[in-house]
Amino acid sequence: MVRKWSPVQVRSWALRRGVKMRVRFELECLSCKRRNYSTVKNKKTTTERLEIKKYCPFERKHTIHKEVKK
Ligand SMILES: [Zn+2]
Fold first, then answer.
1. Is the pTM of this model over 0.70?
2. How far is the CA of 11 from the centre of ligand 1 (A)?
């Protein structure tokens, strides 16, 4: 008999496997040093430190945000 997995079981299995490869980090605004964003990235596919232009709600403009460890 083929074992049927419920959607909840599949999701928790995928989550458990994904946890190992995903790291949580925050994006810090370089000009005001505030941490505006919290996100995850895949360790395997993204190895370099991120530096992206994002909207800073405190300065109300787009600034460079750098990846920082949580
Ligand atoms: Zn800022």
1. no
2. 36
